[in-house]
Structure formats: structure tokens, C-alpha cells
Amino acid sequence: MPSESARSKTKSRQTLATRVLLRYGGIAIAVGVVLSGCIYASENFERFLIRDPRFFLPGPADYGLESPNLELHGVKYASRQQILRLFEPDYGRSLFLFPLATRRRTLLGVRWVHEASIARIWPNRVIVQIAERKPAAFVKLPAESMVRWALIDDEGVILDPPAKASFQLPVLAGVLGGESQEKRGIRVRRMQRLMKELGPLADNVSEVDVTDLDDLKITEQAGGNAVSLMLGDRNFSSRLSNFLDHYPDIHHKMPQATSFDLRLDDRITGLEESNGGR
After folding, report:
1. 141: which residues sit within 8 A by CB, 6+ positions away?
2. DSSP string for the chain
3. Overall pTM surpassing 0.70 (yes/no)
4. Mind listing the pLDDT tens digit for each residue in 164-215?
């Protein structure tokens, strides 16, 4: 039979184990109570944010007016009314339920909108900041039995010209409406690199033809005349500068020439309009 000392040690170990079990059990119960309390408080607070009218986004006071609690900044050419209509489902609802990500994605689908950010300002205000696209050129696009004018940015996005707006931009030829946006963007950026290389000489360029990306053509004002110049794929500035330096003599010798080939750096070839010969 176990001795009295052994029985005492066994009893002591059992008591210690019981105390440890009770201690951790109490901690677990306390943690559970705290978590339950936090969840309960969180749910109550969420219901408070959703239901309390102080957090509702107020709509316009009357038809045709704007909500004073929805601030829209950065809009110049985009349709202000089209943008504001996107937020109509949010009027009279809690700011807590406002779908930030969804509204931003919708804004990016509006023509002229390049970037957009939305901020919720508690208790019941929304601030929308718009960064619009920057047109790079005019383009002519076929539309049924006619041609319509449009604008295009450096990403190849076609933009409708806004009413009563004036842009000092060249015409970009060679862009097709049926092309992908990526291909249109490549053509626009090709034109922009050409214009950048030309520097001040670009001021008199009225049209850039990028039909062939390796053989760019421009329409330039020279001596009061509009001339078509084939610049090739490099040395744009030096070729144009050389042409302008010699144009008075060229025009004197070939007054009917309106098209010139500058693709060879050491020569200028003119095309006579009257007989089609060089």
C-alpha cells in the first residue's frame, strides 16, 4: 500500500492541477465574455451608424440642385450632371454604407475622367476629386455618311469635344476609330515624341500623319503656304530645319510644289502639283 507521504504528494499534485485548470478555465470564460461584449457593442454601434439620421447623406433640396454635402472638384470638361447622377442611390442612406470602391470604379468609366478619389467625411459629407484626361490632338473619325471631329489623349482614349472649349492642338491623321485603344495610344505618343523633338519648330505644324509609324508626315506652314513633308523615322528637327532654311529658294524654283520628301538627310525632293513629276 502507498505510504502516507506518497498519498499526500498525489493529492497535492491533483489539487495543483485542479487549480491550474480552474485558473485557465476562468481566463477563457473571461475572454469569451469580453469578446461577446465587444461583438455586441460593435453590432450595436454598427446599427447606430446605419440607422441614425445624423449620418445620412442628404440629397439636393430640389430638382436640378446639387446636394450641399456632396462636393465635386476638378471637373472642367467632363459632364458634371452625369457624375452627380452616379451618387443618387446614396442620398438618404448612411455614410457607413457608402460603397467607396464601387463608386470610384463607376467614375473611371465616365469620359474625360482619368483618375478619381472619394473621401467620406463624418458625419454626412462626401468629397469627390476628379483628374481629367488631357487631350493631345484632334482626330477625324468616320461616322455613318459623314466625318466627325473628336479629341484623343496619350492613352488613345477618344474624347468628345466639350462645348465652348478651345484647344490649340494639331490634327492627328492615321488614327482609326475601330483600332484598339492601345494601338491608338501608340500613334499618339509617336506624334508627341516627334513634336517634342521639333521643339519651337512644332508651332507651325498643323497636322501629323502617323499612318506609317516608321514614316511620319507633317503639314507645315512655310512662307504662307501649307506644305506636306515626309520626315521618315528620325532626325525630325534637323530635316525640318534644313527644309525651312532652303524653302525660299525651293519655292522660287518650284512654286507649284506642295509635297516634299525629306527622308534623306542630304537632299530635298519636291513633287510638282501641276504635272505630277519631280
Report:
1. 147, 148, 149, 150, 158, 175, 177
2. ---HHHHHHHHHHHHHHHHHHHHHHHHHHHHHHHHHHHHHHHHHHHHHHHH-GGGB----SSTT---TTEEEES-SSS-HHHHHHTTGGGTTSBGGG--HHHHHHHHTTSTTEEEEEEEEETTTEEEEEEEE--EEEEEEEEETTEEEEEEEETT--EEPPPTT------EEES--TTS-HHHHHHHHHHHHHHHHHHGGGGGGEEEEE-SSTTSEEEEEEETTEEEEEEEETS-HHHHHHHHHHHHHHHHHH-TTEEEEE--STT--EEEETTTS--
3. yes
4. 888 999 999 999 878 999 999 999 999 999 999 999 999 999 999 999 999 9
C-alpha cell at 182: 492601345
